[in-house]
Specification:
The chain is α+β, with helices and mostly antiparallel strands. It contains eleven helices and ten strands.
């Protein structure tokens, strides 16, 4: 089966507009993404020109208001687009998800003036965003971040940001960064959000991390050496930043869940195609019950994960709480991706361990999805907090 071939997924889309959108997405995948995915990942090439095309096609702002250049699509549609992009190439699917995450703060908490000034370019003007929360010593314990923003002069004065952010997807190549920095005392209440231009003086990216997978997606530390940002680029109220960050992560985790199911589906499609063509003992290996049961389990796990992320998306679209379901979806879908991609390598046997087939890449890529935007251990903590309340310690 050629890499990037159409997924064996029957999608239930709410509108004719959504069906037209998927036709566009599949056309872009077939012509612009799938043919280059394997070679560009192996070479560590980030397809910046492709993201410009995605922006021009309206795919970087699907879930946002058309008033500011968005696509007015419900989250259940946006996430299924992410799934298909990630199935073709995770660097692209995850990149779109991260860009959407970087736009969330301004779209949800910015003033009308800020939104009118910045969102059209962010959503459809060819810009690429990144999200800066984690730090070298502040990952899962995000509320302990140390990057500081100090206001000069009286209220309304510029802010000066100093510190280091870590594990930043699109670090060093983004046109704008949503940055969480400490403006007050310790803990969550002392954090504020800022929109920082990618070319700000004093902002410098370290060399990209050398990663196990997703080699085409740059991940780097960012150093803020007295970066000056006007108060007009502060997002929300002073001290509201951590609440903004958590709100963004609830939505972002659904993006990761959708990407994970995309990778898992791509791995399953490759495994089924191989198993029906590969012959041993005079017949296709798909005839052997042990392997048939493995494929059946893989498909069932994928369908369960897809149903869970879509159920969470529909809660979000209805304006209902979805934080618990987002954590559940991120947990289940990314664990599923790891299991399914590992099993896909097993189905292909020795061939699955070579670069001649994409399943080894899918397996390496699946691992990071269990880590980004809150490890799966953190997701379990979030779910348990919803069920049993805060830890009493």
């Amino acid at each position: 089966m050629p890499e990037g071939a159409a997924q064996s997924v029957e999608r239930q889309l709410p509108t004719e507009e959504a069906r037209d959108l998927f036709a566009l997405v599949r056309e872009l995948i077939k012509g612009e993404i799938a043919p280059h995915a394997a070679a560009e990942e192996e070479a560590g090439h980030f397809p910046r020109e492709l993201f410009t095309l995605l922006s021009e096609s309206g795919l970087l702002g699907l879930a946002y208001d058309s008033e500011f250049g968005g696509g007015d699509q419900p989250y259940e549609v946006y996430l299924q687009v992410l799934e298909e992009l990630a199935a073709a190439r995770l660097t692209v699917g995850l990149g779109v998800s991260v860009h959407s995450l970087a736009c969330h703060g301004l779209a949800g908490y910015g003033t009308k003036e800020q939104q009118a000034e910045h969102l059209p370019d962010m959503l459809g003007g060819g810009l690429l965003g990144a999200y800066c929360l984690s730090e070298p010593s502040s990952g899962s314990d995000a509320a302990s971040l140390r990057t500081k923003a100090v206001r000069e002069g009286s209220e309304g004065g510029d802010w000066v940001i100093t510190g280091t952010k870590a594990w930043i997807t699109h670090g060093g190549i983004a046109d704008f960064y949503t940055v969480l920095a400490r403006t007050g005392g310790e803990g969550a209440r002392g954090v504020t959000a800022f929109l920082v231009p990618g070319d700000a003086e004093g902002l410098q990216a370290a060399a990209p991390e050398k990663k196990m997978g997703m080699k085409g997606s740059p991940t780097a530390q960012l150093h803020f050496d007295g970066v000056r940002v006007s108060d007009a680029r502060r997002i929300g109220e002073v001290g509201q930043g951590f609440a903004i960050a958590l709100s963004a992560l609830d939505s972002g985790r659904l993006g990761i869940a959708a990407c994970a199911i995309g990778v898992a589906q791509a791995a399953l499609d490759e495994a089924v195609a191989y198993a029906t063509e590969r012959k041993q003992f005079g017949r296709p290996i798909a005839d052997f019950q042990g392997l048939r049961f493995m494929l059946a389990d893989m498909a069932t796990q994928i369908e369960a994960g897809r149903a869970l992320y879509l159920a969470a998306a529909r809660l979000r679209d209805a304006g209902r709480p979805f934080s618990k379901q987002a954590a559940m979806a991120k947990l289940l879908c990314t664990d599923t991706a790891m299991k399914v991609t590992t099993d896909a390598v097993q189905v292909l046997g020795g061939y699955g361990y070579t670069l001649d087939f994409p399943v080894e890449r899918f397996m390496r890529e699946a691992k990071v999805l269990q880590i980004v935007e809150g490890t799966n251990q953190i997701q379990r903590m979030v779910i348990a907090r919803h069920l049993a309340g805060p830890d009493s310690r």
